[in-house]
Amino acid sequence: MGSLIAANLDSEQSHPCRKVYKSTLHFFNKKGCGRIKGISACGKYMALRHLGKGKRAQVSVEYMMIIGFVTVIAVPLVYIYSSYTQRSTDEIISTQLLQIASNIADTSDEVFYLGSPTQKTFRIYLPDRVETAELNSTEVFFRARTSRGAYDIVQIASVNMTGSLPVRQGLYAITITAGDGNVQISYK
Fold first, then answer.
1. How far apart are CA 135 and CA 139, in angstroms?
2. 119 and which of 5, 57, 177, 179 could share a cystine (Cβ 3.0–4.6 Å)?
């Protein structure tokens, strides 16, 4: 393609596009005076102007197709990711609660069999989504909310347990003290 040169159309008084070219810079090759490869300057200008609009429309359509393709791929990936993380979170919570319940039941048995002045304290992290935490004589009971509904965790000890357990999320110190015929459970 030629270099960018301002058209000198004063010599071509009869040219129909003279007014268009006077105020604008256009592409011309250095050999011809208003002609590029056999097409008049006016025709080439109109062809280039029309070609530019078509290319912009084509680029817009291509961008829309790319955005549509990315959306078609991204939506299922986001769904798979969110369902996977939800299941993982549910499994982590149930595993933590099972570990806490078994730790309370095992420590209660140990403290009871060691006798009356025995006391043990340990720390737990209670996860969120816990709805209920109870001690029912020989049972440690937790109910948690998961994406599939309520989930119950029960651990059984061989001794009677009295006291209370925390329900809110956080770090707690659980103290188990041996008593006469039972163990007392408290938290801070």
1. 6
2. 177
